[in-house]
User: Fold this.
Amino acid sequence: MLEAKARVVKEFHLIYTLSFCETPHRSFYQEEGMSVKPDRWIRRMSLEHKMIEPFTDRQIREGVISYGVSSYGYDIRVADEFQIFTNVNSTIVDPKNFDPRSLVSYRGDSCLIPPNSFALARSVEYFRIPRNVLTICLGKSTYARCGIIVNVTPFEPEWEGFVTLEISNTTPLPAKIYANEGLCQVLFFESDEDCEVSYKDKKGKYQAQTGIVPPRL
Assistant:
């Protein structure tokens, strides 16, 4: 009987705390997990541990698509190297047996992606991801509002390298991408414990990549 009453009191206290307290103690309802990291953490990790090189410690916005550290992320730049898909050779895009003739290399201050087509590029920045960190990368709204979609898979724990960027032009018109300006934003999530096996441990096939890297099996 006493145990039942104690349980009722505890449950009432929890409901009251969640309903009326502005800052309820997280131990009542949330275990430790992964948290998104702020600008001061990104700055410290980049300056002291070379997590991002080169690192821009503020948002550069004047006359360009913005890049650099933001409140809870980092806007990365696209370099002036591009590989654009072409169907000249009438090949099939096969992830298990990728034909390099499907791509045409291009270098310049900007790149035109044909209508309903796709290009690969790389980041200006080189990343070194800590063992207890995972990232998510999202395209910038300036490009998204033009029908230009950026797809980048997560940077896994202890992955390092230049980022291969996948850029889709979903419009029926040519789309322009500006080199050395912002393209997408990286969010950093830190776990409360290290993973058992990192990307470096398993010798991932895209570890320490230095240029635009097509699919590997």
Notes: The helical segments are 2-20, 39-49, 141-144. Residues 4-9, 11-30 have pLDDT under 50 and may be disordered.
